[in-house]
Amino acid sequence: MKYLVTTFYKFFEQTPDEVKARREWLLNKGRELQLKGLLLIGEEGVNSTLSGEESSVNQFKGHLLEILEQEKMTFKDSYADRIPFRRWKVKVRDEIVTIGHPGLVPDREKNHHLSPSEWNAALQEEGVVCIDTRNKYETELGKFKSALDPEIDDFQQFTSFVENSDISKDQKILIYCTGGIRCEKGILELENLGYKNVYQLDGGILNYLKEFPNQEFDGECFVFDHRVGVNQELQPSERWHLCPHCGNPADQIIQCVQCDMDEYVCVHCLEQEKEKPEVKTCSKNCAHHFKLGHKTNKPHLDTLKKKGRSLPENL
Questions:
Q1: DSSP state of 310
Q2: Among 79, 82, 294, 78, which Cα is nearest to 203's?
Q3: Pick the CATH number of 3-92 from 3.30.70.260, 3.40.50.1820, 3.40.50.2300, 3.30.70.100
Q4: Catalytic annotation on 243?
Q5: Going by fewer Cβ within 10 Å, which terminus of the chain is more open, N or C?
Q6: pLDDT at 315
Q7: pLDDT tens, 284-311?
């Protein structure tokens, strides 16, 4: 079975009472439809990635527009062979995407948005600067070929990077992120700093790849769920996995020194092997027992479950 994964956001005003009531309603409706994922709701709007059976997700979309009293919303859809989330959560947040300035929200639906085709044309213009607004563990999977990578650890560092760069305030700047929401606030921050010629990719990388796979974007796109990334066809990554030690993307395969299971570990953890030999284990549990000097040939149950393997009879 294929499961539908949808990503969406929208900025609109809600009262505290509306947020509270809608949070409870959406939580219960998601449970009823057996959805998995995370939905953030606050006085500035909603932001979510969720998954489930296609009919259930589509039902939820209709209910969502009705309960939030919205005429339309842009949903970016993709598919996965298994649900990439473990549970369903609806959380209240001051900011539905955190930049550290609650209340900084778009005052109109479109603000220098470029469609994927317009984005392709803008990338070819002389003197244009393209900047990735995402964290460095995301850009490791892929980015636009000509884009600057700020190598930030948190989105709140993005505007500082631009402000401390040698980019002229008159220069044309293109910014992008995974699905578009970070750029909605990022462009406002840059405009407040005096950058008036800033444009954003409408719908982010996910929307771009839907129209132009294998063109200006190089590699895969990181996503915040157990798929880790999606390839140029928006299919779950076959290369990238979650590192069992730090949770960042991993593509280096090791044999666990504790239980002999194969597992993927990130290059950054493996760089610490001399000081922390336990990084060559398949899980935090195996790392713990390795440090205590316990040796076992039995694979760890959590690792087997994560890989979708059946449990050996001798366990």
A1: P
A2: 78
A3: 3.30.70.100
A4: no
A5: N
A6: 43
A7: 999 999 999 887 666 555 555 555 554 4
